[in-house]
Amino acid sequence: MTISIKPTTTTNADEDVELLIIYEASRLMTHNGTADEAINGILRLMSQMIGLNRGRVTLKDDDMDTLSIRYSYGLTPPERARGHYVIGEGVTGRVMQTRQVAVVQNIDDEPVYLTRAVERGTLPQETVAFLAVPILYNNTPLGVLGAHRLRGRKRPFSRDINLLQVLATLIAQILSLSRLIEEKTALLADENRALKQALDQKTEGTHGILGESPALRHALRQALHVSPTQATVLLTGESGTGKERFARLVHITSQLRDGPFMAINCAAIPEALLESELFGHEKGAFTGAVVKKQGIIELANNGTLFLDEIGDLALDLQSKLLHVLEKRAIKRVGGTQDIPVNVRIIAATHKNLQKAVNEGQFRIDLFYRLNVFPIHLPPLRERGGDVSHLARHFLQRANHEFDRNTVFGPGVLERLDGYNWPGNIRQLENIVKRAVLIAQNREITIDDVILILQHESHIGEHLEAGSTKSVAPIEPPSLPSKSHQPTQRGYGWVRADETQGLLDALRQTGGNKTRAAMTLGMTPRQFRYRLERLGLLAQ
Ligand SMILES: Nc1ncnc2c1ncn2[C@@H]1O[C@H](COP(=O)(O)OP(=O)(O)OP(=O)(O)O)[C@@H](O)[C@H]1O
Question: How far is the C-alpha of 73 from the C-alpha of 55, rounded, in Å?
């Protein structure tokens, strides 16, 4: 086996082809494909461009003193499968052991050459040579790059060896990079798993109720404290603070969890229907009562009944509800019989019930029956830090729902944190959903959010004013979809404080109104309209 190589004369054609191979090999390296594709590509180039045939990359097996062929070009699967060597065994094993290159001028004359992977009969009759170089990374041998060639070819061996060494260096880089990526990916997957687990554990006791603020945590502790008892719970808090969510939490953490959870909104059902909805009716009890019907209280038997907006219950129904609480029985409309029920009551209201009692609108005895264990749910503006927490959660949910992959851009969470949230969590959830939908790219920008919040404040103003005067129609911000129909906004929508936003957008787009409109999620027409209304069209 020859180890030393004599330098030989070169031709321009040799240099050209070598450069081309190196160029193509480095392109494969930086290509998007996998390490396998890159290494197989290099072996293909060696064979097709320079006659270094049946190239193979033999790598050290993990924790063993052996090598195996891992990549090859021109070897059949059985040939490849035979390619195992103990380090030090055969030409490949020795190159690995000594880190020296090997030139076998004639495989038929070299006793060290094993003829293990490829049988001699399948090779050309002519004299066949075998060249092998170590694959070194940071001076550590990872494996061996080897190939056959016909000895009679014009190219000097020394050039082939030089080229193989360059290619072996590239292969070492590819292998170490892919190992690094594999390790990193495994690490990230582990981290992801750990985070998910931590999140599951964190929300396990709270059943998806998110928030770290002391006010929320206090309410949560109270809910979990009372849930195992059958005590009546009164949830108070503004709309959208999570009263129904808490009611469900109390139910599923109670002993009644296997029973039904029935919810009814006392403000949403016309008074005439509410009684039969609550208590049911007998057949023929009134016109239209063609069959007997169970009411929601009866349906909640052995479970939990959630009476939302209890403050809106009419006085005569308050008396009937009191009867249920005292007697633990109901009477269907048109019925005479008391039907026993075992129901845990959770009531909720956004009203001040004490005040309603003082004003004679709510029965004091019912109030005391319901107010056994009051839990106040704080509005979002009193839950310091929870907005970002919830916003991230809703972003994840909306991305999943709309099959998008958006992220919050710089300043967005701070902007959301600073908003007053009259509609609380439900409003925050809706706004995040809208932001996900209108984001033009992957990032939800501060401009997207400003636009939506401006729109929200406008709605808020009209709701607060409770105005009966006609209000110009309000439209949600435009979506970036192709199906988007340009729409005309009402005059009332244009606000003086939009000026800066419009001017900023124009500045950023070098005065291009169409692009400025896009950055604000508007149609060009809406943008021009605003400029016009604000006297900015000349800008
Ligand atoms: N702490 C929370 N973590 C996650 N989501 C929440 C939380 N609180 C409320 N939500 C979500 O906010 C929305 C509004 O909550 P919910 O319907 O329970 O409020 P509510 O106080 O009953 O409102 P209303 O009085 O208007 O009926 C729901 O989508 C709910 O899932």
Answer: 5
